[in-house]
Amino acid sequence: MAFSLPPLPYGLDALAPHISRETLELHHGQHHQTYVDKLNDLVDDNSQTNDDLEAVIHAADDQHVFDNAAQHWNHSFYWQCMSPDGGGSPSGELAEALDRDFGSVDAFTKGLHEEAETHFGSGWAWLVHDGSKLLVTSTHDADLPLKHGQKALLTIDVWEHAYYVDYRNKRPDYLTAFFDGVVNWDFVAQNLKAV
């Protein structure tokens, strides 16, 4: 069996013009695939599959195993955070929770945008549930909320390979396109219900 690259939940052209086909081909088909391939080489246990990924992350005492397993998890989650029907504003229980913990949906969006924009170097910006409330946070490199006892609800990849083809070094433009055009609020709402 072994770990495998999950298919994108939409076509390669589906997120354009916000995220291009070329970006998805490189990001999903090459970057993510490389993490999967390296993880399989490092673990060398064909009985483990994507269903075992979280256990591998928690048990990893080798940094290379952790990095590749975590990046496989992060990317698999990130693809779900986008949708061709995305963008706009959240509603229902998700909007109520954001109002409760951030003061307003706009304050949350601004906070996550700023966290992602000002994150130094490679990493991820997250909306998480810490067991009692929603928080905006970020992690460096392959690190992820799972390792810190938090439940991930939404992530934005701020490694340059996530946006360089489409936006060059203009990370703020990528973040605006993410929120305006592709963020999958339905997926975020499902994650919140599972908390």
Strand element count: 3
Within CATH, the superfamily carries the name Iron/manganese superoxide dismutase, C-terminal domain
Main structural class: mainly alpha
Query: What distance lies between the first and last C-alpha atoms, to the nearest angstrom?
Result: 30 Å
Overall average pLDDT: 97
Q: What share of residues are in beta strands? A: 5-15%
* Main sheet attributes: strand count, strand direction, barrel closure: 3 strands, antiparallel
CATH topology: minor pseudopilin epsh fold
Structure description:
The protein contains eight helices and three strands. It is mostly helical. The protein has a three-stranded antiparallel sheet with strand order 2-1-3, sandwiched between helices. A hairpin with a 4-residue loop joins strand 1 and strand 2. The chain starts with 20 loop residues before the first helix and ends with a helix. It has one domain: minor pseudopilin epsh fold (3-Layer(bab) Sandwich), CATH 3.55.40. The mean pLDDT is 97.
